[in-house]
Amino acid sequence: MLKKIIHLSLITALSAVFLCACEKKTQPSGSEKVKGSFVATIIADSGATKAPADNDGAGACVNRCKLQVWSKNPKTSNNELVYEKVAAVSGNGRQPSSEFKDIELEKGVYYIFLFWADCGNGNLADSCYGTADLHEVTIAGTYSANDDRRDAFFTSRAFTVKDGFSETVNLVRPFAQLNIITTDIKSIYEKLPAGSRDASIFNSTPSDIRVAFSAPSVFNVETGQPAGPAGSFTSDTPVYRKVDGEIAGSYTLYMDYIFAATSENKIASVEFMASNERGGMDVVKRTFTDVPLARNRRTYIIGPVLTNGECKVSVSGSWNEEPPVDPVDPTDPTDPTDPDDPADPSDGASYGQPGEPGPGIGNKPGPEW
To answer: Strand ranges (DSSP E) for the chain?
Structure first.
């Protein structure tokens, strides 16, 4: 009887060992941990040799980079956040960077790595953008243009982790930049009475800008495209550049960063109003239509904006390309170009004589605000 008990005990023990061995073989290979690292480099100027004349769009305000690592739940097929870290941006050159070390992940698992760099607050928390989920980056707080803190950068990577890894990724902008530049400040100044020019130019040029339009309001870092329906934006801001005593040939009234797809983008209508609280007057109201945008490029609406002259719209060939030389003579806006040489959209198109809306950039009365 004792021998049978011992025999049965041995069989039970061997069976347990066999079952354990089978369970180890069926465990996913992802149970083994490996470590990886990234250097996230911000490509602020597309390799240009100099900054643009207005000095914005250099990524100077970017102080943090967020990394989120997502994996797909095999049971639900939903993405799950498995790692998140915010790192400070270091380096004062044209390509500052953030470093993410010792990221511990499971071997054999497919991961999605999402990167977003922007201007955070003093604690590197969200400020201009909501980044709780980098699949849905939103514009945080009250919408405000003419603010270079809203410059930001992104990229994504996805791969199955097999061994430890060390990679460098380059972050680029998800935006187009929209600029409205007037060229008639000097013309306005010269028409003022000589004895009161300094005071008069102060009270006859705008102090405040209101711009309204519809554009994407959410950005998906994984797809690299705007997400969701367009949002309606209205921005009330001081003018972007001030005269400050020197009457310049051109004067940037408005600058904004707008989420843009990699394909063709257009804003159907940009409602523009310039006002002057100092003089208690509206300077001008205008509507610009079918305004083209391009990812990581600057769109310029340039011309005698304040005197209702013809304006030209163009998209820069690169981020750091200087604004185009305005072909419109503010003193003779009825004869800006050769009438036998129609505008080429690839070079920028000019639309709308004073008081006569054209098919694109026009001189339509603005909305009642």
So the answer is: 33-42, 64-72, 79-88, 97-106, 110-118, 129-130, 137-139, 153-160, 165-171, 175-182, 208-220, 225-238, 251-259, 265-276, 281-293, 298-303, 311-315, 349-351
